[in-house]
């Protein structure tokens, strides 16, 4: 929890410039390192084609990966700590609880008050809610693993379940992802179908429309009972990733007039003010898109408004680009085809789609085994084919989206993309070659 001191009020540029470098949470880089490790290994089968025979002997030393990853995160945290110290901020370490609308108590001892109080306590992993969920781990437990498990059940079809399942699979674990309905329901239907094809191609196992009924501990690991009647034996870890509720328990909100939404998030208005004046909330705890850049940008926007004389400034939640770091990654911005049809009417929506093989896979001899990227544009015919959604899946799509997102945020049409000359030979060139208008 951060509290802003009143002494900043009215001063211009009181946001330290080094804050602008604050751009990551610890979970994102931690998972990104695991994504990269998995990317090295998943390409093992390509080495031979590239004449890299020694590389096919590549072996994972998991404890070394974990040690180096954790050291990197510690180094990052040190940098952030330094930024706080160097900017004359006082950091009080401890668990915060409201005792009234404007007073916060830390670790049940010291009390603090301020003209402005910002709540940014994030979210926490859901437990699962089935018999034996105490034997399961969550994403924090995944990062604490000391060695690579042999067999894992991943429960949940969202970002975390899909990312962790895919990382473990690429590292060599036998993974079964169990999902209540579909994997990545938030994705566009065509992209999800392509994901399933790519998962099938890589031998990734998933069970759709299935839930976990019960988990038991046995001498040889976990026994997991699934709703389709099957039982998985000798499971080393069962990772639950069924969402992240707001972290409001123990925050003492009952001592305040701060209200929650029906879904249990802190209720805020468009300026991120809670139901108590001068108490603000940003990030996961508000139910905004649960993404690091969203939390950070909302915080910066609020600070600019309060202390930099920009009274009308508010966070813009429209067209937020996001990437799911599956293998391969999925990038998306804006509406899916079905959302766009619902919003603008079926007759006003057109789509452009392209599938292609990234040159990286060109030396795979069997055409059927070449993973295909897919790009899909959703455009509004009423507005000169303005792009209202862009969806990508495949190698390098994580890096391809950001530039396109700028253009789309500026209101680009499909023709604007078509007019742009391609950069050859890259995967990104498909963005301007996909089903071109001219
Ligand atoms: C495994 C995983 C991977 C992710 N990967 C990505 C990614 O690749 N890209 C991306 O954009 N987003 C990613 N996210 C989402 C991202 O981490 C969150 O959206 C982001 O961290 C939200 O920021 P926040 O400030 O709201 O909360 P947090 O970053 O969770 O920070 C909340 C802080 O408040 C502290 N806190 C809680 N309660 C109290 C209290 N009572 N007193 C004092 N302190 C308290 C917590 O300990 C924590 O330090 C990932 C999330 C997870 C779980
Ligand atoms: N790459 C990234 O940017 C990244 C990575 C990780 C997490 N995140 C953020 O963190 C958030 C939380 O991730 P998450 O994967 O925990 O949540 P999520 O909301 O993405 O997915 C939760 C999944 O669990 C399922 N589910 C919910 N309740 C269930 C139940 N009772 N039984 C069975 N299944 C159930 C949902 O259908 C969904 O498939 C994400 O929404 C995302 O915004 C982002």
UniProtKB/TrEMBL annotation:
Binding site for FAD: 284
Keywords: Disulfide bond, FAD, Flavoprotein, NAD, Nucleotide-binding, Oxidoreductase, Redox-active center
Cofactor note: Binds 1 FAD per subunit.
Classification via SUPFAM superfamilies: FAD/NAD(P)-binding domain, FAD/NAD-linked reductases, dimerisation (C-terminal) domain
GO cellular component terms attached to this protein's record: cytosol; mitochondrion
GO molecular function: flavin adenine dinucleotide binding; glutathione-disulfide reductase (NADPH) activity
Residues at which NAD(+) binds: 156-163, 243
Keyword flag Nucleotide-binding: yes
A Pfam family: Pyr_redox_2
Protein name: Glutathione-disulfide reductase
Organism: Euplotes crassus
Taxon lineage: Eukaryota, Sar, Alveolata, Ciliophora, Intramacronucleata
């Amino acid at each position: 929890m951060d509290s802003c001191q009143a002494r900043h009020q009215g001063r211009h540029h009181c946001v330290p410039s080094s804050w602008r470098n604050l751009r990551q949470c610890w979970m994102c880089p931690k998972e990104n390192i695991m994504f990269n490790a998995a990317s090295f290994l998943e390409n093992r089968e390509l080495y031979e084609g590239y004449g890299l025979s020694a590389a096919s002997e590549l072996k994972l030393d998991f404890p070394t990966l974990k040690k180096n990853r954790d050291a990197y995160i510690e180094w990052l945290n040190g940098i952030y700590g330094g930024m706080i110290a160097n900017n004359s901020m006082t950091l009080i370490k401890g668990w915060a609880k409201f005792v009234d609308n404007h007073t916060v108590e830390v670790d049940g001892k010291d009390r603090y008050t301020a003209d402005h109080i910002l709540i940014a306590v994030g979210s926490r992993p859901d437990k699962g809610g089935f018999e034996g969920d105490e034997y399961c781990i969550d994403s924090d437990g995944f990062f604490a693993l000391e060695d690579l498990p042999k067999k894992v059940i991943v429960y949940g079809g969202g970002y975390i379940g899909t990312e962790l399942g895919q990382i473990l699979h690429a590292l060599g674990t036998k993974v079964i992802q169990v999902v209540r309905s579909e994997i990545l329901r938030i994705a566009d239907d065509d992209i999800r179908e392509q994901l399933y094809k790519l998962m099938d191609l890589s031998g990734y196992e998933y069970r759709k429309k299935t839930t976990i009924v019960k988990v038991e501990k046995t001498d040889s690991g976990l026994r997991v009972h699934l709703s389709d009647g099957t039982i998985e034996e000798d499971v080393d870890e069962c990772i639950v990733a069924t969402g992240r509720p707001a972290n409001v328990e123990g925050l003492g909100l009952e001592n305040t007039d701060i209200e929650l939404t029906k879904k249990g998030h802190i209720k805020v208005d468009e300026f991120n003010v809670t139901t108590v004046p001068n108490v603000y909330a940003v990030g996961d705890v508000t139910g905004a898109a649960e993404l690091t850049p969203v939390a950070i940008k909302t915080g910066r926007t609020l600070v600019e408004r309060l202390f930099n004389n920009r009274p009308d400034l508010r966070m813009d939640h429209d067209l937020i680009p996001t990437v799911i770091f599956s293998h391969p990654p999925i990038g998306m911005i804006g509406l899916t085809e079905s959302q766009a049809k619902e919003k603008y009417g079926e007759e006003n929506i057109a789509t452009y789609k392209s599938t292609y093989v990234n040159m990286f896979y060109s030396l795979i001899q069997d055409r059927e085994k070449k993973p295909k990227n897919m790009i899909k544009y959703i455009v509004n015919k009423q507005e000169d084919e303005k792009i209202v959604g862009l969806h990508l899946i495949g190698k390098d799509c994580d890096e391809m989206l950001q530039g396109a997102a700028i253009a789309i945020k500026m209101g680009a049409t499909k023709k604007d993309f078509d007019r742009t000359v391609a950069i050859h030979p890259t995967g990104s060139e498909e963005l301007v070659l996909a089903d071109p208008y001219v």
